[in-house]
Design brief:
The complex is a heterodimer of chains A (395) and B (276).
Chain A lengths: L3 E5 L5 H10 L4 E4 L6 H6 L2 H5 L1 E3 L30 H22 L5 E3 L11 H20 L5 E8 H4 L2 H11 L6 E7 L10 H16 L3 E4 L5 H5 L6 E5 L2 H4 L20 E4 L4 E4 L3 H7 L11 H6 L11 H19 L3 H24 L11 H17 L3
Parallel strand pairs in A: 1-2, 1-8, 2-3, 4-5, 5-6, 6-7, 7-8
Antiparallel strand pairs in A: 9-10
Helix pairs in contact in A: 1-13, 4-5, 8-15, 14-15
Chain B lengths: L2 H5 L2 E6 L6 E8 L3 E9 L3 H16 L8 E6 L4 E7 L4 E2 L10 H20 L2 E2 L8 E3 L5 E3 L6 E2 L22 H4 L8 H16 L17 H7 L16 H7 L11 H15 L1
Antiparallel strand pairs in B: 1-2, 2-3, 3-5, 4-5, 6-8, 7-10, 8-9
Helix pairs in contact in B: 3-5, 3-8, 5-7
Classes of the chains: A alpha/beta (395), B alpha+beta (276).
Amino acid sequence: MSFKIFHQLGHNYKWNLDSIKEDGCGDGLIIGPRYISRSNVERFEKNLKKTSIFDPQFYLPGTPKAHLSTYEFFPENTTLAGFDTDDFSETSAPISAQGCVDFQIKNKFYRIVIPTRYLRGTNPEFINQQQNLFVDPFLKEIRKSKTSIPVLLQLIFNDLMLKHAEYVADILNWVTSLEIDGVYLISKTSSTSKQIKDSEFLLSIFDLIDSLKDNDLEIVLGYLNTESILLSLANPDIVTVGSYENMRSFRTRPFESLEDSSQIGPNPRLYMSQLMQWIEYQYIGAIKRKYSNIEDIFDTNKYQAHMFEKAFRWHFTKPELYKHHFLMITKQLKELSKVSGKERYDAVREMISRAISKYNELSKKGISFDTNSDGSHLHIWLTVANLYADEKGWR
Amino acid sequence: MSLEAVLKDFKVIKPYKATGQKRVLLAEHSGYGKAIIKIGRSASKADLDRAKREVEVQKSLDSHYYPKIFDFISFADFQFVIIEEFIDSQSLSSCHESFSEPLLILNLLKSLVSGLDLLWQARITHRDLKPDNILIRPDNSPVIIDLGIVLAIDKTDITSPFAFFSPCTPNYAAPEQLKNRRAEIDPRTDQFVLGIDVMELIGGGIHPFDPAYHGYQGSIPENIIKGIWNRELLNNDKFYIFKNLINRLLAQEPYKRFRNSKNIIQEIENCIEAYK
């Protein structure tokens, strides 16, 4: 089964729109109201909305950060005294649900999303809260509307939740009893590493997706970085690509009221598809010296050509970094989408193995990477892919 | 009106054995013909509500999978009478030998799932699908009875949250019923008991969780909670095709069972196809 590729929209979302329209990268969008005002979302082209999902981003329902304040149905905006769990479920939840469902139906999005609140750790009230605050009122509105648009339930799993088998089972028993068509799944790791290097975390995501797929639920995987390649083995229906790091790894920080805007931005990085890694730009000069033909190691395209010009000023806010990434990662994902099952496993294993070989080649040439640019995630990913393939009988 | 006044219009043919709070009679009525009379006395309003619920549900199901309800009368002292259609049949527990062949079992299961789907679509769980509550007509078609402990998901559960387990027959209950995990009781609970019923047919009338299979360890409910059942029965040539179907029906966690009746029927049809 093939899968679609959606852009996770954030700051400077115009780059994502350009990438779809000009470079043909991706099949749709996941629209984030934190970054896009209500009126701007409404002005999106109809055809684009038809293939896009609106994520209400109720993660921190008491904080209508930035453009979230323009959505009258955002939980905090529906209350006078400020968001409070008990008061909200009794009085404002139906108003919020009605507004949010109406908005999604009127804009004719590809799917309707029932939002979620982000909860830390393994909160024993997880199911009750989600049910009372969002699921019940949303499903009531959706039933009332008689819409035929499929419904996704958004779920955010942190690493503690994912690794707690009984906790996951309780959530699965609940989710699979609901009248929904799919799950918009976000997994949040507490690691600060640029790539996920926790095999147990990754294997738990595979288990979770498998259980949901066994129940005929569509799976949308949000906020993905390069691990989208690995997770494609679980046969999701939609995977995402994003520009800035906070669109490739779920964080609550951009939704917090006291986000420190004065913090220093990250070093600019270049996505190298052959390495399955974003490397810090300062390595580029050294690598170029070691390859007479840069195509042997770098991806070449119009954005790369521009970035490799001497006059190019590397900065993490430059669109070329991300448009280049969209081109290359969607190319890799599209290749995987064409095959399924064992064939996809073989292709993913081959990609990872080749990346490991490339890192070895670079090492022999004297290039020594720091831990956020190196290939230390690759052996873990290969292990995870192999273990999953064993379960599926592909190996 | 008194109970005697109601009964005077019937000629009692024979009494059946009393079960729980109920007395059951086979009787003849000038208008209904042969009918089943269930007489009960509720200990409380909650029990009476339960009986009323059975009637409400059964009345809403105009289907050959359920007996028709002719009347329900309750009295001031919590006594009640249910008059329902008599069905010429015997219970599955007394005719299991008629279902020893794979295709007969699969077709029975398919019919049961189709019948139960009428309840499930209404978000109602039967919760007591033991073989005694499945009647078999002479043409082998099933009738589902005794909806006395059904739980309409959208209605308030009348069971106390402090009960040791939810209303059920413990030997024919799903783990979530025995653990009184009320939030998890939904139509998938019935799937588990259907799994027990089918395995009992495959085992020639012996309960799959019977401790006799396992060196006399634990009771049947204990084995249900621990997931200890006689899997060996599916390792022979005759029944190995049932493996996936039964493994899903008897999964400990509801999410590992089938999500809906369509999926179960699809799997049953796959099995039927495999036997052909």
